[in-house]
Amino acid sequence: MSDIALAVIGGTGVYKLAELEGIERRLVDTPFGAPSDAVVDGWLNGRRVLFLARHGEGHALCPHEINYRANLWALKSLGAKSVLAINSVGGISDNMGPKVLAVPDQIIDYTWGRAHTCFGAGGTVEHVDMGEPYDAALRARILAAAAAAGVAMVDGGCYGATQGPRLETAAEIRRLHRDGCDLVGMTGMPEAGLARELGLAYACIAVVANWAAGRGDAAEITLEEVLANMAEATAQLPAVLAAMLG
Ligand code: HPA
Questions:
Q1: pLDDT above 90 as % of the chain
Q2: Binding annotation for substrate
Q3: Which mean pLDDT values do the consecutive 10-residue runs of the chain (246 residues) have?
Q4: How many domains does the chain have?
Q5: What CATH number is associated with residue 161?
């Protein structure tokens, strides 16, 4: 079997990679239970790629119901070394309007009650370094591929990970902004921390689906708006992936 060139975790609006060829669906059992879905193992540009739908088939799992540990463990056990996470987010900063693609370089965790570590429970205890939460080389690879593919991508930004599944209040978004967050999403953590614990190189493409609460002119954030913006923005991702695997 060839080495895995990349593993991709798809978020809201990204439930498969249509370009993957020769696919096999792998049902993986992990010490933490079952992943969100079967891992799709296939080929893109002649390179072996894994894909996992974070919310499962038919988007059945809320952000707090996702078994992040099992997802990352499954990808690692199949041989992944690098994980590209695709996350739908709301935009907080002025340069993060709907349909923007961004590669964040920092994250703040506001989630609670999620299984957020692979350590403990009588096993080993380690405190992994998280100063730079995203892998620098993988971020650079994403940004270089986007540039080569002619796809605009914002380099950097701080992702605020909230609990969901409800959207935030305008006051919560103002607080996130004061804290330095440029983007808000519900699935960036504990995924990034677990990837670091498991020794996986991890980076994120954040796809801005809407202005966060209180930031745009819209009276309300609607699902139609979110899905339409996601569809338009994610249409650019196959070209970026192809360039990453060139
Ligand atoms: N907030 C949190 N998560 C999100 C949003 C949002 O506004 N949009 C898409 N994911």
A1: 84
A2: 186, 210-212
A3: 90 87 94 96 95 88 95 97 97 97 98 93 86 98 98 98 97 98 98 98 97 91 90 95 93
A4: 1
A5: 3.40.50.1580
First to last CA, the chain: 19
Q: How far is the CA of 49 from the centre of ligand 1 (A)?
A: 27
Pocket lined around ligand 1, Cβ cut-off 6 Å: 88-90, 162, 167-168, 184-186, 209-210, 212, 221
In whole angstroms, what separates CA 4 from the centre of its chain? 18
Q: Look at ligand 1, atom 9, and give the residue with the nearest C-alpha.
A: 89
Residue nearest ligand 1's atom 2 by CA? 185
The span from the CA of 67 to the CA of 217, in Å, is: 35
pTM across the whole model: 0.96
Write the residue with the smallest CA distance to atom 10 of ligand 1.
89
* Residues pairing with 51 in the sheet: 8, 40
Q: What ipTM was predicted for this assembly?
A: 0.99
Distance 65 CA to ligand 1 centre (A): 16
Domain assignment of residue 135, given as a range: 4-244
Determine contact, residues 108/175, Cβ cutoff 8 Å.
Answer: no
User: What is the rounded distance in angstroms from the CA atom of residue 71 to the CA atom of residue 9?
Assistant: 9
